[in-house]
Amino acid sequence: MEAKQNGRRWLSVWLLIAMALTGCFGEDDASNQGSNWVTRHGLTSSAYQTEFDKWVDKGYRLTYVSGHQQSGVDGGREARYNAIWEKTEGVDWYAKHDMSAAQYQAAVDEAERKGFQPVMVDAFNVGSQVVFVAMFEKAQSNWVARHGMTSDEYQQEADVLVDEKGYRIRHVSGYEVEGQARYAAIFDQSPSPNWAARHAMTSDGYQQEFDDLASQGFAPVVIDGFFVNGTEYFTAIWHKADARYGARHQVKNGSGYQKVADDFYYEGYRPVAVDGYGDGSKTLYATSWKNIAWDLNQLDTLNTMIEDFRSDNGIPSISVAIVQDEKLVYANAFGMADLDTNEAATTTHRYRIASLSKALTGAVVTRLIETTPLNLTDQVFGTNGILSAYGNDNVLADQDIASLQLQDVLEHASGGWSNSNGCGAGTQDEPIMFSNNGQSRDWIITNTISNVPLPNTPSTTFCYSNFGYAALEAVIEANNGGINYVDYVKQVLAVPSGANSLEIAGNTEAARLPNEVKYFDNFDPYFWNYARMGGHGGWVITPIDYQRIMTKLDGGNHRADLLGVNGIDIYTRDDVAVAGDAWSNSNFYSKGLVREVNNLAWSHNGNFVGTVAEYIRYDDGFSVMMVINMRRPVGASNDLTIKSLATSLHDASITFPNWDLF
Question: Rg of the chain over CA atoms, in angstroms?
Answer without folding.
Answer: 30
